[in-house]
Design goal:
Layout: H1 13-28, H2 43-46, E1 50-56, E2 59-64, E3 69-72, E4 80-81, E5 91-96, E6 102-106, E7 110-114, E8 122-125, H3 127-140, H4 147-162, E9 168-173, E10 179-183, E11 188-191, E12 199-200, E13 213-219, E14 222-227, E15 232-235, E16 243-245, E17 253-258, E18 264-268, E19 273-276, E20 284-285, E21 293-298, E22 304-308, E23 313-316, E24 324-325, E25 334-339, E26 345-349, E27 352-356
Antiparallel strand pairs: 1-2, 2-3, 3-4, 5-6, 6-7, 7-8, 9-10, 10-11, 11-12, 13-14, 14-15, 15-16, 17-18, 18-19, 19-20, 21-22, 22-23, 23-24, 25-26, 26-27
Helix pairs in contact: 3-4
Amino acid sequence: MRRVSDRLCRLTIPLLVLTALSSLAGEAEKSWDLLEVPAKPSLHMLQGLQTAVALAGHRLLSVGAGGLILLSDDNGQSWRPAQKVPVSVLLTNLFFVSPEQGWAIGHGGVILVTHDGGETWQKQLDGQQAAQIELDSAKADERKDDPASQRRVQEAERLVTDGADKPFFGLYFSDATHGMVVGAYGLAFATSDAGVSWHSIIGAIDNPRGKHLYAIASAPGGLFIAGEEGSIFRSQDGGAHFVALKTPSRGTFFGLLTSKQGDLVAFGLRGDAYRSSDQGKDWQKLDLPTSGLNGGARLRNGDLVIVDDWGEALLSHDDGRTFAAGGAPQAMGLIGVVEAEDGSLAAAGTRGDVKLMMTPQAEPNK
C-alpha cells in the first residue's frame, strides 16, 4: 500500500501541512501510540493548525493538530478545548446531525463520536480495525477468476501490514444513523447504526487505482464523492454503488458544494473550480483568481463561500456561477469555513480559528 508521502507533490498547502504533521506523528508513534494517548491541549496548540469547523446548534466546533477539538459558545469570539478527546492524532473533519450528536475523523483512520455537543468524545474506529474490516470484506468478495478482486485482497493485506497510518478526510451523515467516511488511497466505510459498527464500501466505488478521496456531498442527483486527479463519483442508489464521472480537470478536488437549486461546485488544487447543473454530466470551469481552494459552505440565504490558501473567503450570490472576494484576507491560509448562528463566518486555518468580517454591503456577483 502506498503511503501519503508518495504523492506529496500533488497536494496543496493544507495537505502539505497535514502530511508533514502525519510524518512527525509517525516518528512519535515509535515510542507511543497516539491513538491511545488522550489529547492534552496547551496554550501553543490553541493558536495552531485547525483543519475544519462546524455548527452544532448554538455552538461552533473545530478540529486540528494533536487531537485538539475547540468549542465556541459566542459565535467564534472565544474558544476553549473539549473536556475529553481520547486520541492525539491530527483530526481533519467533523460533522453534526444535531446539537448533541456528531463525529470527527482524522489520521490513523480514527473516527470519534460525541453525544454531548462536543464536550466529550469516544473512539468508534481506528485504522487497524478499518484495515481488518476491509480485508475481511475483500476476502468475502474474492473471486479467483477476477484479477481486480485479487488485487483488492492484496491491497487489503498491505493495509493490515501498514497498520493505522491512513487518514480519513471526508464524512457525511444523511441522518442520525446512516453515514460515510472517505480518505487516502480510496478508503471508504459506511455505517447504518450511528457508528456502532462500520463496513467497507471500497469495493462499491469505481476507483481501481485507489485515488485519494476528500469530500462527500448530497445533491438531488444522489451522493457525490470528490477526490484526486479531478475525480468525481456519483451514487444514485443511496451509496450502495458509486460510478466515476468524467470531468475536464486533472487537479485534485478537496471540496464539493451544492447550491440551493442543486447545482454542484467542485474545487481544489491550484484554484481549479468547476460547476455542473446536470448532476455531474457536464462541467464548466470557473474563473477564480486564487491558488488552493480548501473548504466551503452553503449559507442559510443560499450563498456559497469557499476559502483559500491566501486567507480569502470567496462569495457567490448566484448559485456558484461566479465568486468574488467577500472581505479582507486573513494573515494565514484558511482550510474550513461555516456560518455561525449570528450570520458571521467562522474559519479554521493554519494558525487556529478566526471570525471572518465579511463586507456586509458586498454587491451580488454579475
